[in-house]
Amino acid sequence: MPSIYLDHAATTPMVESALIAMTHQAQVLGNPSSLHTHGRATRKTLEDAREALAKEAGCLPSEVIFTASGTEANNIALKGLYWAGQNSGKNIIVISSIEHHAILDPAHWLKTHEQAEVIQLPVSDAGVIDLDFLDNLVKTRGDEIAVISVMHANNETGVIQPIGEVVRIAGQIPVHTDAVQSFKKVSLSFSSLGVTAMSLSAHKIGGPLGIGALILKRTVEIPSLLHGGGQEREIRSGTLNAPGIIGFTAAATSSYYNADAVAALRDRFISSLQALIPEAIINGLSSERLPGIVNVTFPGTQSDTLLLLMDGEHISCSTGSACSAGVHEASHVLLAMGHSEITAQSSLRFSFGAASTPSECDFVVSVLPDVITRGRAANLT
Amino acid sequence: MKLIAAMSGGVDSAVAAARAVEAGHEVIGVHLALSANPQKYRSGARGCCTVEDSHDARRAADVIGIPFYIWDMAEEFHDGVVEDFLAEYAAGRTPNPCLRCNEKIKFAAVLDRARAMGFDGVVTGHYARTEIGENGKTLHRAVDHSKDQSYVLSVLTIEQISGAIFPLGDTTKVDIRREAEARGLAVAQKPDSHDICFVPSGDNAGWLRDRLGSEVGPIVDQSGTKIGEHKGAYTYTIGQRKGLGLTIPTPDGSPRFVLKIEPVTNTVVVGAREELAITTMRGERAVWCGPSVDERHQSGFVQIRAHGAALPCTYFMDNGLLVAVLEAPLLGLATGQAMVIYDGDRVVGSATICETE
């Protein structure tokens, strides 16, 4: 029985070059902060990697702050930019209503513990943020806004957000974007976008787990979350994870990901799915999307039941969101796009990777009608 | 067979799942999330329904090597078990929520869903046995009578029992813990769950008071003379002696017991111990785990508490009610409890006690 993995937006296999570079670096002795020969050697390798990553992200090497995850990068950016703004009397955080929990939850935390006012940007049924709403907000209360954070592309639907427009509307207000899903999937340049901060993660692009980066404009100073040795611009202390960084950069500089091929697979999946299950709703279909993500609502089903049945067919896909107890909840992203609690809980996310094949795609589509039938029956009990 | 193993995070359901796998079945572990707001950690003697318990269940499934999922049954549990529990108390009866959970959740909502998804049945860690007889599956007491849970399963219909697998019925609890240890299951020494899972503190009276209020009412003797006051009739149980707070003694100094709870007038009636004695009980909503009982008088046993004694009796149907006439009188029997009829170790059926005399 073949086992098919269509959850590449959760994590994706490591690129071979990244695995080799990382395991090699793991055998090299030397703390990059040490002043002796061993330390300097590691530092040299690391700074080479930083320069290479900066090139891929369209930023300056000094703008790269390595973190342990995309979540950490988001936390540093949102909290840091909020606190920096708070010092000059600004207490509003503007986020989109479809952010990942790694933005939603720190925003909520700042509201509860640091007197922040959190304003969420609505999105259209097609999953794109409402720029008019933002425009009005900036015009009326712009001088109170400490930070605006809008993800570059949504992790559940793959819908790409108009970050350039956000930056234009924001003017002098700092803009952060969570680009974890977009990096290396679509064209992405920190300097062209004009954002103040941008979050990246290695394991979504074929790099190792446990390493991410915050890209932060050189001129911006924000308070740090982790205090200690002062590594990474005094913003993020902690011995640099040399093997992780080397693996991250190796993945970022490899050309393993063929966006056109992945997009073709996605479109093949969508058209055969629509032919077999006409009532299926492809969320965000009319919007510009990432090549690898398809989010489908199957009316009359429950996502967690579908996931179990798909798993039984040896197919790994995702329901989009889960709480700590593992109980499936309606996706806040789909709710924001106008779904009801019921239809928001009737959806699956399929995400394709660089190595996904047309035959895998066809097999998944072929088992779906029966899975949907059984899922509907279970939902009626 | 393709089976769903309901895994609470406790030792029994973990071993039950492992045994089902070993018996050659294709098994999937499912943890039922029954609380909309689960507590993070276990407290006191409780042993399920926390996030920690769902992690224990997941870990057991991983060790056994079966897929594992969490099913959100919070709404069904609230409507079918918690609301019923409150309504029964409010009506002056003493419900058994575990029984209701088996009837409405584990072998109804879960079993139906499992069947719709293409599974053949549900495996649980209950201590009970089933046997295949001429007329299909029958339900029997577990070998370990001290752990026997056939009482709380007695509400299952033949159809439900046909989809139920109880792999632990032939083993003692001590041996199950030993087996869990040998199988490398970390829950081997996890304490048994006690109390009612949705009453986190174990303070049943307090939990009820928060939801049903504490309206003061009279405590009266059998002549109707008021001799005290209570704060919520539902916090009393038939046969209860302690905690009545009565200051007027009986003429002969003998203790008083709760005889009756009258929800409409919010009255608690107390009286002498002898007054508690009953010989006949009638039950409504009878369910048969095998052939139906009719008007013919048959002898067998009736059990009225989860781990109570099996009392010799004659049983029969009368005007749609299941009647059990005891050989020896019984002191203190609350309505709302289940009366379960046994023929030896076999469960004949059960009904909810509505009248006693």
UniProtKB/TrEMBL annotation, chain A:
Cite the GO molecular-function annotations of the record.
iron-sulfur cluster binding; metal ion binding; transferase activity, transferring sulphur-containing groups
Specify the Aminotransferase class V domain's residue ranges: 4-362
Xref: SUPFAM superfamilies:
PLP-dependent transferases
Question: What cofactor is this protein dependent on?
Answer: pyridoxal 5'-phosphate
The family database entries (InterPro entries) matched by this protein are listed as: Aminotrans_V_dom (IPR000192), Cysteine_dSase (IPR016454), PyrdxlP-dep_Trfase (IPR015424), PyrdxlP-dep_Trfase_major (IPR015421), PyrdxlP-dep_Trfase_small (IPR015422)
UniProt keywords, alphabetically: Iron, Iron-sulfur, Metal-binding, Pyridoxal phosphate, Transferase
Which is one Pfam family of this protein?
Answer: Aminotran_5
The family note in this entry says:
Belongs to the class-V pyridoxal-phosphate-dependent aminotransferase family. NifS/IscS subfamily.
Record-linked PANTHER family = CYSTEINE DESULFURASE, CYSTEINE DESULFURYLASE FAMILY MEMBER
**Which protein are we looking at?**
Unannotated protein
TrEMBL record, chain B:
Q: Where is the tRNA-specific 2-thiouridylase MnmA-like C-terminal domain?
A: 280-353
Q: Which InterPro entries match?
A: MnmA-like, MnmA-like_C, MnmA-like_central, MnmA-like_central_sf, Rossmann-like_a/b/a_fold
A Pfam family the protein falls into: tRNA_Me_trans_C
tRNA-specific 2-thiouridylase MnmA-like central domain residues are 207-271
**Gene3D superfamilies the UniProt entry points to:** Adenine nucleotide alpha hydrolases-like domains, HUPs, Translation factors
Please give one Gene Ontology molecular function term for this protein: sulfurtransferase activity
Note the coiled coil stretches, chain numbering.
none
Keywords noted in UniProt: ATP-binding, Cytoplasm, Disulfide bond, Nucleotide-binding, RNA-binding, Transferase, tRNA processing, tRNA-binding
The UniProt entry, under NCBIfam families, shows:
PRK00143.1 (NF001138), trmU (TIGR00420)
Q: What's the name of the protein?
A: Unannotated protein
